Amino acid sequence: MPRPAPTTPAVIVSGGVAHDFPATSAELVRVLAEAGVSATVETDVEAVLTGLGISGERRPLVVLNLLRWTMQVERYAHLRDEWSISLSEDARAGLLEHVRSGGGLLALHGASICFDDWPEWRDLLGGVWRWDRSSHPPLAGPVPVTVATDRHPIVAGVGDFEIVDEVYGFLDRTDDIVGLLSSPHGGTDHPLLWARTVDSGRVVYDALGHHVPSYAVPEHRRIVRRAARWAAGLPADQPAVG
pLDDT, tens digit, for every residue of 58-85? Predict the structure, then answer.
């Protein structure tokens, strides 16, 4: 499959618990390259997000592939010293300014759990995990994913598919969220993908992506490529890469 020369910069902010983030972030570098996006991987969340406030006119696509939060849930107490985080005001302002001024944000999987002491994170992302209500079934057998075909260029023409992944559900979402992918559990369908504009910027959240095999599913890989391009302000559909 022909690949365009990567020209659009991106930074993948990576790291956290309960997932092989080095492996999934490395795979994301390859997926984004197929979409013409050249990505680097960084683990210093504070430095990256604070730096967005001084990034100038050429803003990178920001990709959040991480699971970092305050970890007040007791079963994570033994991991707090290494992995808990509360973003500084400068980091929060950097990410907000990045998006509101026209930058792109692609948030994956555990990103909806992150930054749980920052109320504006829900408003920016469009939905977040709540420990008293959100859940996902065990990672087992393929689950069905329904595509809202032709509703948005990220998913237009992509058929329904099956995937082995964690299906996040019962998130606390803003009222404007329209699911582009969905899958059922707990007696109801849950949106797994959405795309929205925030001021001059574009935000995509993809709840899938627990592990590398998630990105090997052709339909999901194609959607992630398109999501990256759309969030970066590029035409989502690129015939050379699907």
Answer: 689 999 999 999 999 899 999 999 999 9
**DSSP single-letter state for residue 127:** E
Residue 228 Cα distances to 63, 81, 148, 208, angstroms = 8, 32, 18, 14
In angstroms, the CA 227 to CA 232 distance is 8
Question: What is the separation of C-alpha 209 from the centre of its chain, rounded to a whole number of angstroms?
Answer: 8
**Prediction pTM value:** 0.94
- Rg over alpha carbons for the chain, rounded to the nearest Å, is 17
pLDDT in tens, 163-181: 999 999 999 999 999 999 9
For residues 14, 17, 23, 27, the Cα torsion angle rounded to the nearest 10 degrees is -50
Question: How distant, in Å, are the alpha carbons of 61, 92, 124, 158, 196 from that of 97?
Answer: 13, 9, 11, 33, 16
